[in-house]
Structures are given as structure tokens and as C-alpha cells.
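R.M. (postdoc): so does anyone remember the format we settled on? I'll just put the C-alpha cells first.
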């Protein structure tokens, strides 16, 4: 599998799930599989090869066989039925196609010990897949909208990391995080440790205590064009994974 080996010039292949959205470009107004270009650019800056993965139903193991790492990207709210809850009025309409595809991708990635970086919705998906639950509308819990002030904008939040954690080793004791989320972790999955928090106590990062690389952040590192540390950490893990699988 792809590696960053200087002799071959090959780089790790990183899977990036996309959204199914109605999209306008040029003279066209069509259904399309799309993803913000910032994810692609960040993957390239970090030394990986981005591969876009459309939501096409239950994924097959052959797909994971072709990847060295997986990024669970941000986007629409998860279906609350996934964690045994009724929908809040502020929860978006379920995107069942994307949920099916990405829960399946995560399950296959875990089985294959594939390195995973989960971003915003991705962290929420990981938490739910491993048995946790979500706050469906943070303003009801916190009494403010600092994590999601207005549509289409990101709020800069100073996030403190837990000493000794994987995320702290990557970004240091604190990070200026680009946040845009109205949901967050409520009950933390037993397999995860909360390793970064916003000043109001919101969990902003979680990771596994041992085993393959699995790190999720509630913020959007792809929106900071000057900082590729989290993606670079994934690419480095993906490089090792590819070399171990195909020495």
C-alpha cells in the first residue's frame, strides 16, 4: 500500500467521505457528491493522497483494503435514532445515506486497524458508534451559542488539551480551534477518553486509550491553512500502517 518512502515517492492514501447534496456549478443544478476543498488541500499539505468517498450505501471491505488512513469529515447531524433519542426541533433532517455509509466505513476501519482522524460530525459518529450519546442542541445545555454563532462562519475557541494525551502531544497544551457545531458529546463512549475541552466544559477532543490511532476533534482543523499538525499526525500513522501491511 502507499507509503511516504523516499525511494518510491509514494504517499499514504487517505479516504475522505463526501456529502450527497444538490449542487450548482456553471450551467448545472444537479445532485452531486461534494466536500469542502479545504479537506483536500489539508491532506495534500500533510503529505497524503486524498481520495473522495461518496455515500453509496454499505461500504465493502475492498474499499478499506485500498486505504492507508481515514478522515471522518464534518457535516450534517446524525440521526438521533442511532443513539436511542427522539429528534430535537433543532436537529437537522437525517441523512440516512451518509450515516449508513460512514458508520459502515468506521466499523471496517476499526476491524482493519486503520488509522482514523474524526472531525466534528466525525467525532460525534465515533462516539455514537462506540456506545456514547450526544447533546442535540448545545444552546439548551450551555445557554449560549459560542460554538455556532451564525450559519456559514467559524468561531475561534481556545481549547485546552489534557496533559499526556495524544492530542496534546500533537498540538500542545492549547489550540485556537475553528468551531461550528450545535451538537457535542453528552455521554462519552467507554472506549474513549475526553482529552480536550472548551472553557465551558464542552468536550472538544476524544481518543482511544490504546490500540490503533483513533483521534477525534470537535473543531475544524481543515479551516486553518497555517496548521496541518493533526492531519500530518494521521498521515504519519497511515505511512506506518501501509509499510507494516506491505513491507
Amino acid at each position: 500500500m502507499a507509503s511516504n518512502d523516499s525511494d518510491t515517492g509514494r504517499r499514504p492514501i487517505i479516504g475522505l467521505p463526501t456529502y450527497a447534496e444538490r449542487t450548482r456549478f456553471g450551467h448545472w443544478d444537479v445532485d452531486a457528491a461534494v466536500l469542502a476543498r479545504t479537506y483536500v488541500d489539508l491532506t495534500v499539505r500533510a503529505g497524503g493522497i486524498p481520495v473522495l468517498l461518496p455515500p453509496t450505501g454499505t461500504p465493502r471491505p475492498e474499499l478499506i483494503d485500498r486505504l492507508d488512513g481515514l478522515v471522518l469529515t464534518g457535516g450534517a447531524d446524525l440521526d438521533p435514532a442511532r443513539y436511542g433519542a427522539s429528534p430535537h426541533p433543532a436537529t437537522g433532517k437525517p441523512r440516512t445515506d451518509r450515516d449508513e455509509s460512514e458508520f459502515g466505513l468506521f466499523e471496517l476501519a476499526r476491524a482493519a486497524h486503520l488509522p482514523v482522524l474524526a472531525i466534528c460530525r466525525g467525532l460525534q459518529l465515533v462516539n455514537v458508534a462506540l456506545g456514547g450519546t450526544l447533546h442535540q442542541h448545545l444552546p439548551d445545555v450551555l445557554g449560549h451559542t459560542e460554538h455556532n454563532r451564525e450559519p456559514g462562519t467559524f468561531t475561534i475557541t481556545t481549547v485546552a488539551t489534557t496533559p499526556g494525551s495524544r492530542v496534546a502531544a500533537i498540538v500542545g497544551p492549547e489550540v485556537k480551534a475553528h468551531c461550528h457545531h450545535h451538537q457535542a458529546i453528552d455521554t462519552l463512549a467507554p472506549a474513549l477518553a475526553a482529552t480536550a475541552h472548551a472553557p465551558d466544559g464542552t468536550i472538544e477532543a476524544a481518543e482511544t486509550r490504546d490500540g490503533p490511532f483513533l483521534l477525534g476533534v470537535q473543531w475544524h482543523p481543515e479551516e486553518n491553512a497555517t496548521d496541518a499538525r493533526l492531519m500530518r499526525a494521521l498521515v504519519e500513522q497511515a505511512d506506518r500502517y501501509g509499510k507494516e501491511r506491505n513491507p
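R.M.: ...and that's the designed sequence above, right after the C-alpha cells. Also worth knowing: The chain is about 25% helix and 25% strand. Helices lie at 37-45, 61-65, 96-111, 121-129, 138-142, 166-171, 229-245.
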